[in-house]
TrEMBL record:
Name under which the protein is recorded: ABC transporter ATP-binding protein
Domain ABC transporter: 6-246
Native species: Parabacteroides acidifaciens
Membrane topology category: Peripheral membrane protein
Keyword Iron attached: yes
Keyword field contains Cytoplasm: no
């Protein structure tokens, strides 16, 4: 069963000094649940890192309530908090002369006391955390020899070894190439299911978040924070409104964002699946709006078992194209 792990009520965040208060966001009402991957999206400078630091108790709130597992976060001692909330930060850790196994073992520090000696149970938890992230082949490697993607997996394993029900991550894919970004996001999603932990992260990887996250938090200066599943936010218009800026359009047909091309003409495009999607993408890149709803004297068929595309021209001619490149040549010549 999913648990209401974090309960946020009328939260205001920002920075306080003796003479001034800089408010970043206010009146935040939200819930974060166990067994879900929640992604925080927003423009640079909107306050994502401030919110993340406040939720993880690294920074004091201005006002309001943050309840973690039914307790106000301010009531936790440092030791209690270290066994309740785990944090993985953006900064690369420049660690020398330490193996992966040793670093993951440091996740047990809230339980091992001053000397840091791992008991048999601590060692079991470290091995289990390594197995969950599938980095058994890295355990003897020195941390400074790892790639960025490998290092991020190690830091996630360290957070798992801490055995906290809640894990916050600040831009976990910031320094990674695209395949590594996908791998890390898929790993985090899998961990929410296999461990039932609450995993909350800030990210700039919009497309990945929309495909992988269970819940999205949209944060902007005008509307504060809007939360929901990616699909509900799309249907309500919040996603298209959130990114309503020049050059970016939310495509309701694919559920993803695309470049807003300037269209010089339009054509009806029949079909479905990958062939339909790839032809539509190529046409729109070339200034032709194409989908099933367009009424036009010419149209394109992408259905059928063959790999060809059928172009019905305005004069009644029918042309076959074996590739999208050929299709574009036919369209440019006759439309």
């Amino acid at each position: 069963m999913k648990q209401d792990t974090i309960h946020i009520d009328n939260l205001s965040i920002g920075y306080q000094s003796k003479n001034d208060t800089k408010l970043v966001a206010s009146h935040i009402q939200a819930r974060i649940y166990s067994g879900e991957l929640t992604c925080l999206l927003g423009a640079n400078g909107v306050g994502k890192s401030t919110l993340l630091r406040t939720l993880s108790a690294f920074q004091p709130k201005i006002e309001g309530v943050i309840s973690v597992l039914g307790r106000d976060v301010d009531s936790y001692s440092d030791k209690e908090l270290s066994t309740t909330v785990g944090v993985v930060l953006t900064e690369k850790c420049d660690i020398r002369n330490m193996s992966v196994h040793e670093l993951v073992g440091m996740g047990r520090s809230p339980y091992t006391g001053f000397w840091g000696r791992l008991s048999k149970e601590d060692k079991r938890i470290v091995e289990e955390s390594i197995a969950l992230v599938k980095i058994e082949n890295l355990t003897s490697r020195m941390v400074h020899t790892l790639s960025d993607g490998e290092r991020q997996k190690v830091m996630i394993a360290k957070a798992l070894a801490q055995e906290t029900p809640v894990i916050f991550l600040d831009e976990p894919t910031a320094f990674l190439d695209f395949p590594s970004k996908v791998e890390i996001m898929q790993l985090l999603h899998h961990l929410t299911r296999s461990t039932n932990k609450t995993i909350f992260l800030s990210t700039h990887d919009l497309e990945l978040a929309l495909q992988i996250a269970d819940k999205i938090w949209l944060m902007d200066k005008a509307n504060g924070i809007t939360t929901g599943t990616p699909e509900d936010l799309a249907l309500s218009g919040h996603l298209s409104g959130f990114f309503a800026r020049k050059g970016i359009v939310f495509d309701t047909e694919t559920g993803l964002f695309r470049i807003d091309n300037q269209y010089s003409t339009e054509i009806r495009l029949n079909g479905h699946g990958q062939k339909y999607a790839m032809v539509r993408k190529a046409l729109q890149r070339n200034g032709i709006r194409a989908d099933r709803r367009v009424e036009s004297s010419a149209w394109i068929e992408t259905t059928g078992e063959t790999s060809t595309f059928i172009v019905h021209l305005p004069d009644g001619q029918v042309r076959n194209a074996g590739t999208i490149e050929e299709l574009l040549q036919i369209i440019s010549t006759h439309l």
